[in-house]
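Hi L., both proteins are below.
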Amino acid sequence: MENTILNTEEIGKRIREIIYSNGENYVSVAKELNITPQGLSKWGAGRTIPDIQNATNFCKHFNITLDYLMLGEEEKNQGEYPLYENNER
């Protein structure tokens, strides 16, 4: 297994793409994840990355894998960034 260096700019790009392709915005997602919109904005700008708990919550919210969010290598779970059905989280 080779070491992987996380690319904050690429992670930020995926975060923005996931949020906007679901018709959401930073404020609504931040509220759902119980974080500040400013913190989420920093992730989306590639200035910081979420800690493991926040990254996991983000992935659950959008039904994607942590591998996809952080590495961009794995296929999304189903469809194009679907939300959980019936608000199951």
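That was the first. Here is the second:
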Amino acid sequence: MSSVDAVHESGYARGDKSKEKVRTMEAVSYCVVYTTKPGERDAFVKKIFDGGLLQAIRDMAGCETYDYYVSEESDNRLMLMESWASDAHRAAHLEAPYMEALAALIEKYVIDIEHID
């Protein structure tokens, strides 16, 4: 089953959660909604999953959750739920070398980003 099929079949895709993660009072969570160019959501998801980018993010120290969810109402919307052990861990994630690749994918496929509080 491809990564896009897994997202569509379940509504989300999860990484390997076999590593025990300890949640602290400092933990931070974020919700980001991406609107892709028409007809490009699946290509965006495929690039993130199949290129190893998603696993690199999930393997980052302090990453507790990094899951994408597709909209059943719009073929162009995708939600990211991410949780980090602390603000410092998320800051390190935002400075990680893989962020350049993610930024390039966003530039290519995404037309709007909404951060939900």
